[in-house]
User: Which sequence fits this backbone?
């Protein structure tokens, strides 16, 4: 799929198919798998996460299937992202969330299956939440850290697309946490302030 | 959705929903509608196209619903693109096709409904064809003119996403035509050389 021509990698045309139920593509280069044992810290009740792993064994909370497209300006990178249903205490399974290293780059998420939310926050305190339902396309502007949250009972399957040179900055949000959390309250997804948030 | 801050347009988070059957989004800023009367020249048998319009009245062959996102580097523009089923003689309904003004920019098309092909050609003569089926994601590299073609009996609904500063160059391919055509032969989509192609 990629050719090496005079030290420049050229991507040739290709296509892949994303399964509408499982979200698994028929072709990928890299698979990122996030297990609860490694992610306990992103949840408000980290001890509950650790207890779940001890009692039930480790749990796969999300997967990202990626194609190896050059990380350069002008390119587009895309993946299939699957967040599995579940909760740690009242808090829904979710991704770690990230800023783009190049802050002014946007990202678009198309929801293929499931339901949930995209939580978006800037370093200056702006905040937004957009719902995921099948067919819903969420536009994440530059400067927003973003995290996808599965509030449903089936896998949340998304197609994220972002500029080749966006880059991922996981560290900043890992350090501060998000200012908001999405938890179940009276059986419904509810936004609360994150008591562990540090800025 | 966009704010004007010190002469800089900032896009705030938003989402929209694309109908899985019709492809029509619940929100758009611009609608491009392409009628056969204005597109007769892109078909091999232009006279047949003109005769169809005379006999049946004008025919809407495709629509593009766009959001007004700034055309700058770092942004992503996206739309819902719907090519309706039909033929001019043996040639399937299709888009005009275009290069990006900034040649080194890629584009990704996610197919929501229908079947067809993405025809891709570079100015240097490279050529590729990728199939559209629901869930299929086609990667169009930089430097490739691209045209989507509906070879099925239902609307071909696609979600195209491209860098904000890609730009559209319709003129180059309008002048030369594509080197290849997709026509029906023995009831099946078949690629032939375009006798009208000029380089």
Assistant:
């Amino acid at each position: 799929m990629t050719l090496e021509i005079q030290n420049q990698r050229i991507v040739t045309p290709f296509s892949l198919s994303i399964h509408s139920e499982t979200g698994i593509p028929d072709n990928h280069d890299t698979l990122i798998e996030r297990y609860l044992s490694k992610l306990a810290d992103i949840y408000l009740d980290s001890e509950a996460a650790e207890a779940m792993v001890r009692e039930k064994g480790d749990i796969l909370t999300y997967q990202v299937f990626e194609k190896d497209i050059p990380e350069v300006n002008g390119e587009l990178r895309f993946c299939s992202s699957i967040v599995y249903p579940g909760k740690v205490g009242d808090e829904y399974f979710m991704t770690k969330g990230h800023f783009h290293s190049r802050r002014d780059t946007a990202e678009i998420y198309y929801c293929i299956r499931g339901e949930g939310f995209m939580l978006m926050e800037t370093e200056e305190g702006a905040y937004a939440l957009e719902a995921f339902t099948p067919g819903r396309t969420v536009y994440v502007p530059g400067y927003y850290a973003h995290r996808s949250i599965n509030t449903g009972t089936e896998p949340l399957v998304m197609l994220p697309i972002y500029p080749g040179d966006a880059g991922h900055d996981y560290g900043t949000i890992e350090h501060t946490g998000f200012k908001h959390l999405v938890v179940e309250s009276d059986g419904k997804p509810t936004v609360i302030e994150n008591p562990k948030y540090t800025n």
In short: Chain A touches chain B through 48 residues (CB under 8 Å). Chain A is about 10% helix and 45% strand.
